[in-house]
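User: Can you help me understand a structure? I only have the sequence.
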Amino acid sequence: MSGLDDFRKKFPQYNDVSDANLTNSLYSKHYSDMPRAEFDKKMGVDDVSKEVASMRQGSALKRGARGAGASLQNLGYGVTGIFSDLTPEQQQTVNVNKRFLDEDTAGFVGGLATDVASFALPGGAALKVARALPAAMKLAKAAPLLAPLAGNAALDAGLAAAYAPEDRGEAALSGAAGSVIGQGLARGAGRVLGGLVNPSDYGKKLMEQGIQPTIGQAADTNSILGRGVRKAEEIMGSVPVVGGLVNNARQRATNEFVEKAVERAIPPNGTPVGAPSREAFQDLTKQFNKAYSVLDDLEFNPDKKFEESIVDTIYNPDFVSTTEQRKFIENFVGKHFFNQFRNKTEQGGAYISGKALKEFDSKIGERLRDLSRDGSVEAAGQRRILTQIDKELTNFRNRQITPELAENLKSTDTAYANYKRVLRAGSYIGAEDGNFTPAMLQRAVKASARTQDDFARGEALMQDLSDPGQILKNKVPNSGTADRIALISALAGLATNPIGTVGALIGGGATAAGLYSRPVQKALLGGYGKQKAMQDALRRYSPYAGDLGASFISE
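Assistant: Let's start by predicting it. Here is the structure, written out as tokens:
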């Protein structure tokens, strides 16, 4: 979102003010000491926006003339585009013209008049058509929902009127109505093919990662349709037979989610372990032991840079800590790191083994997990210090190994950090046999974040998965009322009309089975790559469908 969009969101009273007037006013009143180019960049004003703002200056007559010129220019480029690709400069001109015609009323009217006249209707018919256009424009004005269709509807109205000299007004209305119907059918078909339900941002992120939520889970609740779909699915979950299929689809999405989380916890060149379980976690532990075993036979020499970084970190004033805490950390590092150095010979050659290095890193991890359970200010300070020491330890290790091994261990470290989070999620009460829920993973991600600021900003490790996973939870608690009503209705139906009731249950179950299959759910949410392309194509060619509709109804 641009800076200008952010401003309008905070101050909606300026939504009716044009971009040009708003940016000029803000610049003159509050940012005049800043270079204008830098201000435009800060506010997200691109070159197209600036050119459009310039075209929107002046009287309505001047803007109408600009609209006429813009329409003719785009018509010319449209013909050019049939035979060759437009240059970037030509494409930008087309974009500027389109934006201007869309945003400026006077420009739109001028462009529309030019569109009608460009058909070169014989006998001065263009002037007669212009007199018939107000009827079509009134139709569009009376139905704001038809606004996207209004331009072509007005043009079709004019063409219909041109060929019906006996009653141009009626012909114009018929042409406009036929155009709206034709365009509406094309756009409606495009909407169905492109995905009947718009997914939320979280729904899109899950699908991008190969997790398929149901339409109710993924629906964008900022729309009436999305809220209705989600509520309907919650209710359907309580209907006999149908409810089982709906709930199975919702559980399938949860299973895919937790398996994706575990998949992130597999070290490079590791083997899949499937769903979370005790056996899966044991297998992963063995895989990480094997992955890190490459360090066991290595020797690491004393590093003055590391020693200095440890001292700087412990006594960094930004890491608020007491004298006792600093002393504790000094002793902790000394015991588990510096005291582990050995001499190869009596003459010197000190080193620390790769195995001891791994053990020190493991001790830091254990201490950080202990501190994460302590909400005190002192614990937070100590946690920040140890987190930085852990980073410095990784740098110390990587300075003394090959770049290839360092890159491999970096991927292993990330996978191991993910593993600790899914392992923590699988240890919570309610995680039967280690099988956790999206809510449990979110809790583990928050508890394991290096700082709570990271989690608040959405930057914690695995939060890109755990945050979207929250849509997989049921939003409406099931009180049991709907279940009881559905059961009573089913029993009553079986008593009065057993054959019809059984048939209805079987039919409803078959419909739900097809509707809630994974491929259909993905299609309903527009998850296939070609769907949006088909929708865009039908939207782009909807004016032609409008022409056909106008011709059919005007006959």
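Now, to help you interpret it: The beta strands are 299-300, 342-345, 348-353. DSSP finds 28 helices and three strands in the chain. Let me know which part you'd like to focus on.
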